[in-house]
Write a structure and sequence with these properties.
The protein is 38% helix and 21% strand. It is an alpha/beta fold and 390 residues long. It folds into 2 domains: 5-141, Enolase-like, domain 1, CATH 3.30.390; 144-373, Alpha-Beta Barrel (TIM Barrel), CATH 3.20.20.120. The strands form 4 sheets. Strands 6, 7, 8, 9, 10, 11, 12, 13, 15 and 16 form a 10-stranded mixed beta sheet that branches. A 4-stranded antiparallel beta sheet has the order 5-4-1-18. The two termini are 28 Å apart. The chain binds magnesium ion. Magnesium ion (MG) binds next to loops.
C-alpha cells in the first residue's frame, strides 16, 4: 500500500554540559553571549551545550520516521530551511523514492551555491527520517535496506581525552587502556603542551601495541603538516586526520602522496560531489563521512566512490541525540571497506540517555540497535529537553 508524506515536525534538543566539548576552556577562551566558545587552537566555534536538530515525518497511513542532523550551531537556520523550502516539496512524496527525493531537494538550490552546509544538513534530517520510515514500513532493521551485512558488530576507536593537561590526558588514556581499549585519537586543537609531545607521551605510556591517531583539526599548511608528520613518524601514528584547510583540495592530495603516515579526512564533506574532488589518484587513505551531514543517501554514495579507489572508511561521530549515530551504525555494518567507527565516549553515553534503544558500546565495539528502522526512538529525556520549532 502506498503512503505519502503528510506532515513534518522539527525539534531542537538542548542538553546542558558541565565541561564543554573538547575539554575545559583554555587560556583566553570564553563562552560568548550566545553560548558558544571559539577554540584558540583552530579558530572554530563550538557550543557550550549539546544540541541537535531532529525531525519526525508522518505519512498518510500514520506511519512515522525519525531523522536528525547536525544542530550544534544555529539550529534554527536549518529548521527554517526544512520548513520553508523543503517540506512543501516533500509533502505528497512516496518514501520509497528516498534517493530521488534527495536529488530533487538538492536540486532546488544547487545553482545558488547551496551545495553543502546548512542546506544539505536540512536535507539530511529528512533523508534519514525517510529511510527510517521506509524500513519500518517494510518491518526490517534499516541495514537490510542498505546492503548485505558484512559484520555483527562495529569495531570502534576511542576519540578524545577531555582533560585540561597533558598529564591528565595521559592518565585518562591509561585508565581506558586498563579497561581494554586499544586505539586512541587525540584532538590536536586542545594539545596545549604540543602535538608531537602529546603523541610521544601517549606512545610511552600506552606501549607499542596501542593504535594512536592524531586529529590535526585543519590547522596547517601542507608543508607545515608534512614537517610535523615526519617529526611524529617515530611514534608511529596510525593515521593523521584533517591536516589542512577543508578548501585545500590540492594541498590534501600533495600531502597524501608524500606523507609517511596515512592521511584521513572527510568529516566535513557533505556529498559525493565534494568527495569525488578528493578521491583522485592521490586520495587519502581513510575517509571519515559524518552521517549527521551526509544522510544515508550520500553516506552510501560517498562510500561507493571510496571503495572503487580502495580507500578505507572510518565513519565520524559528533555531538547529536543519537539518531544519526544509529543510522551511521546501520550503514557501517554493510560497508565492505569499513575500518573502525569513531567512538566519542563523552558524547555517546549522553545520547543514549535520550533514546529508547538497545544500541550500545562494550568491549571496543558498537552493538547495532535491533528492531525495525533505526531501532532508536526519542525517550523521556529527549522530550524533557526538546523544543518543537515547526
Ligand atoms: Mg576530526
Amino acid at each position: 500500500m502506498t503512503a505519502t508524506v503528510a506532515k513534518v515536525e522539527t525539534f531542537i534538543v538542548t542538553v546542558p554540559r558541565d565541561t564543554p566539548y573538547l575539554g575545559p576552556l583554555g587560556p583566553g577562551e570564553r563562552v560568548n553571549a550566545r553560548g558558544y566558545v571559539v577554540r584558540k587552537g583552530n579558530g572554530t566555534i563550538y557550543p557550550s551545550v549539546d544540541r541537535s536538530l531532529a525531525v519526525r515525518i508522518t505519512c498518510s497511513d500514520g506511519s512515522e520516521g525519525w531523522g536528525e542532523t547536525y544542530g550544534i550551531c544555529a539550529p534554527r537556520a536549518t529548521a527554517e530551511i526544512i520548513d520553508d523550502l523543503l517540506v512543501p516539496e516533500l509533502l505528497g512524496r512516496d518514501p520509497e523514492d528516498v534517493e530521488r527525493i534527495w536529488d530533487d531537494l538538492y536540486g532546488l538550490m544547487r545553482v545558488r551555491g547551496c551545495s553543502s552546509g546548512f542546506h544539505v544538513d536540512a536535507i539530511t534530517a529528512l533523508d534519514i527520517a525517510l529511510w527510517d520510515l521506509r524500513a519500518r514500513r517494510h518491518g526490517v532493521p534499516l541495514w537490510r535496506m542498505l546492503g548485505d551485512r558484512q559484520r555483527e558488530r562495529v569495531t570502534g576507536y576511542l576519540s578524545g581525552l577531555p582533560a585540561a593537561t597533558l598529564e591528565g590526558r595521559v592518565e585518562m588514556a591509561r585508565r581506558f587502556q586498563a579497561q581494554g581499549h586499544d586505539a586512541f585519537k587525540i584532538h590536536a586543537v586542545v594539545s596545549s603542551e604540543g602535538i608531537a609531545e602529546e603523541v610521544a607521551a601517549l606512545r610511552e605510556a600506552l606501549g607499542d601495541g596501542a593504535l594512536l591517531m592524531v586529529d590535526l583539526h585543519w590547522k596547517f599548511s601542507p608543508e607545515e603538516a608534512l614537517a610535523l608528520i615526519e617529526h611524529m613518524a617515530v611514534h608511529r601514528p596510525y593515521f593523521v586526520e584533517a591536516p589542512v584547510k577543508p578548501e585545500d583540495v590540492d594541498g590534501l592530495a600533495w600531502l597524501a602522496e608524500r606523507s609517511p603516515t596515512p592521511i584521513a579526512a572527510g568529516e566535513e564533506w557533505y556529498t559525493e560531489y565534494e568527495a569525488r574532488l578528493r578521491l583522485g589518484p592521490h586520495a587519502v587513505a581513510f575517509i571519515q563521512p559524518e552521517m549527521g551531514h551526509t544522510g544515508i543517501t550520500q553516506f552510501l554514495r560517498i562510500n561507493r566512490l571510496a571503495e572503487a579507489r580502495g580507500v578505507a572508511t572510518a565513519p565520524h561521530a559528533t555531538i547529536g541525540a543519537g539518531l544519526f549515530l544509529a543510522a551511521s551504525l546501520h550503514a557501517s555494518v554493510t560497508l565492505p571497506g569499513l575500518w573502525r567507527h569513531e567512538w566519542q565516549h563523552s558524547v555517546f553515553s549522553r545520547s543514549l540517555e535520550l533514546l529508547e534503544t538497545d544500541m550500545g558500546y562494550a568491549d571496543g565495539s558498537y552493538s547495532l540497535p535491533t528492531g525495525p528502522g533505526l531501532g532508536a526512538r526519542p525517550g523521556k529525556r529527549f522530550w524533557d529537553h526538546a523544543e518543537r520549532v515547526y
